[in-house]
Amino acid sequence: MFIVELSFGDEPDRLAARPAHRERLQALRQEGRLVMAGPFPDDSGALLIFDVPDAEALAATLAEDAYYRTPGVTIISQREWSPIVR
Predict the structure, then answer these.
(1) Model pLDDT, residue 85
(2) pLDDT at residue 20, rounded to an integer
(3) Which of 13, 19, 31, 35 could be a cystine partner for 49, CB 3.0 to 4.6 Å?
(4) Which CATH fold topology does 2-80 show?
(5) Contact (CB, 8 A) for 13 and 70
(6) What is the pLDDT of residue 86?
(7) For residues 35 and 42, what is the distance between their CA atoms, to the nearest angstrom?
(8) How far, in Å, CA of 36 to CA of 33, rounded?
(9) 15-73, pLDDT tens digit by residue?
(10) Number of other residues whose CB lies within 10 A of the CB of residue 19
(11) In angstroms, how far apart are the furthest CA atoms of the chain?
């Protein structure tokens, strides 16, 4: 599993791109590649947990969604995670 943390800026492009991004997240959830995702209450960023086998699969998954390249969206952290309780 991998955890991705995003930081959000005030650029209007981010809000315009969000509906398509959220649809993509729903598809990833149905495919089993996304465990959970959501913004922080202050809308300063978000946290996503992906269930993919390796960093290459994570990179490919992120590349499928233009939201991660949208002005106002910054990936600030990507870390492999080994949960012990599920």
Answers:
(1) 85
(2) 96
(3) 35
(4) Alpha-Beta Plaits (3.30.70)
(5) yes
(6) 78
(7) 22
(8) 9
(9) 999 999 999 999 999 999 999 999 999 999 999 999 999 999 999 999 999 999 999 99
(10) 10
(11) 39
Give the C-alpha separation, 37 to 24, whole Å: 12
Mind giving me the DSSP string for the chain? -EEEEEEE-S-HHHHHHHHHHHHHHHHHHHHTSEEEEEE-TTSSEEEEEE--SSHHHHHHHHHT-GGGGSTTEEEEEEEE---S--
Q: CA–CA separation, 19 vs 23, rounded Å?
A: 6
Tracing tokens 């947990």 back to the chain, one arrives at 49
Token pair of 23 as six digits: 């649809």
Say what the pTM is: 0.92
Given a contact cutoff of 8 angstroms between Cβ atoms, the answer to whether 55 and 2 are in contact is yes
The CA-based angle 32-60-24, given to 5 degrees, is 50
